[in-house]
Amino acid sequence: MFQELFTPSVQHSLDLVGIFVFAISGALLAVRKNFDVFGIAVLAEVTALGGGLLRDLIIGAVPPAAFTDLGYFTTPLIAAALVFFLHPEVERIQGAVNAFDAAGLGLFCVTGTTKAYEYGLGLTASAALGLATAVGGGVLRDVLANEVPSLLRWDRDLYAVPAIVGASMVALCIRFDALNAVTSGIAVVTAFVLRLLAMRFHWRAPRAWHRSSAKAEGESESST
Amino acid sequence: MFQELFTPSVQHSLDLVGIFVFAISGALLAVRKNFDVFGIAVLAEVTALGGGLLRDLIIGAVPPAAFTDLGYFTTPLIAAALVFFLHPEVERIQGAVNAFDAAGLGLFCVTGTTKAYEYGLGLTASAALGLATAVGGGVLRDVLANEVPSLLRWDRDLYAVPAIVGASMVALCIRFDALNAVTSGIAVVTAFVLRLLAMRFHWRAPRAWHRSSAKAEGESESST
Amino acid sequence: MFQELFTPSVQHSLDLVGIFVFAISGALLAVRKNFDVFGIAVLAEVTALGGGLLRDLIIGAVPPAAFTDLGYFTTPLIAAALVFFLHPEVERIQGAVNAFDAAGLGLFCVTGTTKAYEYGLGLTASAALGLATAVGGGVLRDVLANEVPSLLRWDRDLYAVPAIVGASMVALCIRFDALNAVTSGIAVVTAFVLRLLAMRFHWRAPRAWHRSSAKAEGESESST
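^ inputs. structure came back:
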């Protein structure tokens, strides 16, 4: 019922933009990790499609959209090729890439929540899956690159909160039967702007209180 | 047919206890890794629900229980909040947490095996999935925290064996048509007690024989 | 329709050979990482069955073959036992193991592509899943062992390209209605020989052009 929030072609174009910018972030990390051209392509694909793939497996939408829409599959390859040949230029516009990544975050948390609800999940579960759609690709990217996911690190600007806000707005709109192109658009923009502000003002989330036992910050190796 | 081993409300309460203690172990690792509050929540959710999620995807029970039962989703958040505010106190009762974790291990290996068999898997596959349900969340926790899974490390007390024993007992009971609340309970308690004994007496599993080529223990970087 | 490319028993035997050699590679890495006997068994299972499991989840073939065919499950355990007891001997025949691994790579990229197409995916998506089937287990192995996947590293001999070539040959054969036991066999052998040549002559893939910003090769910790 919500499938036509935007006209299909607008929706599809927005999806491809989100996939493209996420793929750029994956490809850039691959270059920094010194991966070869196939590593760049794999990390671009996983970052761009991983979140949606996870969502589709969980809601039972198989085969996932990532494998049925050729555009979803080829877009990350274009991003990977761009980074491969023009890496310093792409680095130089890192600010623009970050802004696009914020747009992808806003878009994916909204479409992820909507799609999960369409497949019969409850409102809370739908919002949780919307969050997973938005951040899942980045987590997979960091796991494959053998890094601590930047989503989890306290020394990174807020990334989860904008997506949580956007997904919750969609869930509330569904609850009060007010989901349409306008309210969806507002949710996307809200998440997008929150993420931009978080980067601009370096908003961070608090760590645990009373971390007395965490005196040795490097002691993580001795954990359970 | 085995769904009512215990009364539904008893079963559900036991599930929530298992989810809660697994979430505590995830949240504690997140604090030790210096993650922020969202990292703590994410690691609590993944540790608590990851094993069951994996099992449900494999047996085709979508959407997984983790996304259809609101209690499953909110319990890890409560555990995360507790650890966030009362971290040193929770650390201090690490012994109690370990005992609860052992209880979760026993419970999940039994319910995981039973559910897999209900969905039509063979006895061996069901026992394997019971093991995966019990240990999967902890492995995902360690992968996300960028650590070698403690399940795989030789310098940790036995963790897989109690779950293997519990899951195998359930599979044998099914084979001889003797699965009921009593035999299920015995399997849970056996796995639980074995894990307690393994921690008490530091039981370890052997490493490969003749590790002559493993002289340089840190040489793992050069592996294929 | 393509199910009987080879006679079922030949196909099954080839599958088991592929699973066995992939399991050996997993078990050997586990020994090098100093894991205990259960870690060796887990890494053997994941390496051998992970790629096919991923493919089956994506195409909706649940429960996956890994959990319905007892031979698929027990073969990695035999490989793990072999490595556990005869580790130095297996290391000594590393060349033979690598050749078998190349055979597994060729076989899995072909059967993976064919199975994905049978389940209704398009040609490009089928070839992509064939590649994922062939390399997925190795990536999971490296992630669990907390290493950078060797698939992504530039300092390893080509691994993805032979699988891409094999999977693409199958897709082309399907496109031109020419897939049969002979053409499938040619695709397997082509991927196999390409991988052997890549190891023999240390073929490597290029890294990104103009990596001026990658001057500090160890700076990867500071990545996004």
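Confidence is low (pLDDT under 50) at residues 213-224 of chain B. The radius of gyration of chain B is 18 Å.
thumbs up if we can close this ticket
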